[in-house]
Amino acid sequence: MSLLFFIFNQICSNKWQKLRTGGPGSGKGTQCANIVKYFGFTHLSAGDLLRAEIKSGSENGTMIQNMIKEGKIVPSEVTVKLLQHAMQESGNNKFLIDGFPRNEENRAAFEKVTGIEPEFVLFFNCSEEEMEKRLLSRNEGRVDDNIETIRKRFKVFVESSIPVIEYYDAKSKVRKIDAGKSIDEVFEEVKKIFTPAN
Ligand SMILES: Nc1ncnc2c1ncn2[C@@H]1O[C@H](COP(=O)(O)OP(=O)(O)O)[C@@H](O)[C@H]1O
Ligand SMILES: Nc1ccn([C@@H]2O[C@H](COP(=O)(O)OP(=O)(O)O)[C@@H](O)[C@H]2O)c(=O)n1
Ligand SMILES: [Mg+2]
């Protein structure tokens, strides 16, 4: 089983001090679509699964909707269950898990429930300014792509996701990519990481 986590977060701890990097709008979904085509992974976006759960009329729908609108992280119990179900349904054994884990609770819950760890974690390095611009012109009708929620999402990334990045960095699992370039240029970088050197 291959499992990749995509966490594209703002990093401000010592080692990463120089980077003004970020998460929402850094191009996770866009690059995942490319990776699926080239490398045969199943792309599972935690955010997409949560949005589908709202649409399905689930009893958790209102709670999830409110959390997303506020840029908050939905309780792991809900998200991990959705991911696990989607993994079982897929019939594949290679997964790109996009936008997850976003906090320590996400990480610990996933590992506890599935017993698996990612092979590596991709980190997209992109300025907040650029991400903000991309999110504001994404035009997918999302309730969280407005300037007020975007600021909250950036803050949540800084506060909740740094420990997760550091956890994986300590295990030498983080692969950093300059995501501020064009879609094609970013994919060239991504390809290098996915193509084994020999
Ligand atoms: N490298 C890039 N340069 C310019 N725009 C991009 C790039 N990558 C993605 N985008 C655009 O930015 C927006 C956010 O991309 P998306 O893949 O949804 O990011 P994420 O999933 O990380 O929030 C989309 O409208 C997408 O078309
Ligand atoms: N692991 C996750 C992923 C997303 N989410 C929620 O879903 C929202 C959108 O996530 P997303 O990954 O689709 O957003 P982008 O980073 O793609 O812009 C987040 O801001 C959270 O409110 C969550 O609670 N837990
Ligand atoms: Mg996305």
TrEMBL record:
A cellular component annotation (GO) from this entry: cytoplasm
Record: residues binding ATP: G25, S26, G27, K28, G29, T30, R138, K181
CC cofactor note: Binds 1 Mg(2+) ion per monomer.
PROSITE patterns with a match to the protein in the record: ADENYLATE_KINASE (PS00113)
Chemical reaction(s) catalysed: CMP + ATP = CDP + ADP; dCMP + ATP = dCDP + ADP; UMP + ATP = UDP + ADP
Record key words, sorted: ATP-binding, Cytoplasm, Kinase, Nucleotide-binding, Nucleus, Pyrimidine biosynthesis, Transferase
Keyword match Nucleotide-binding: yes
Top EC class, one word: transferase
Domain of life: Eukaryota
The protein's Enzyme Commission number: 2.7.4.14
Gene3D superfamilies found in the cross-reference section: P-loop containing nucleotide triphosphate hydrolases
Amino-acid positions noted as binding CMP in the UniProt annotation, renumbered to this chain: N106
Record's subcellular location: Cytoplasm; Nucleus
Known cofactor(s): Mg(2+)
Matching HAMAP family: Adenylate_kinase_Adk (MF_00235), Adenylate_kinase_UMP_CMP_kin (MF_03172)
Family: Belongs to the adenylate kinase family. UMP-CMP kinase subfamily.
Entry comment, domain topic: Consists of three domains, a large central CORE domain and two small peripheral domains, NMPbind and LID, which undergo movements during catalysis. The LID domain closes over the site of phosphoryl transfer upon ATP binding. Assembling and dissambling the active center during each catalytic cycle provides an effective means to prevent ATP hydrolysis.
The protein's name: UMP-CMP kinase
Organism: Acorus calamus
Taxonomic lineage of the native organism: Eukaryota, Viridiplantae, Streptophyta, Embryophyta, Tracheophyta
Gene behind the chain: PYR6
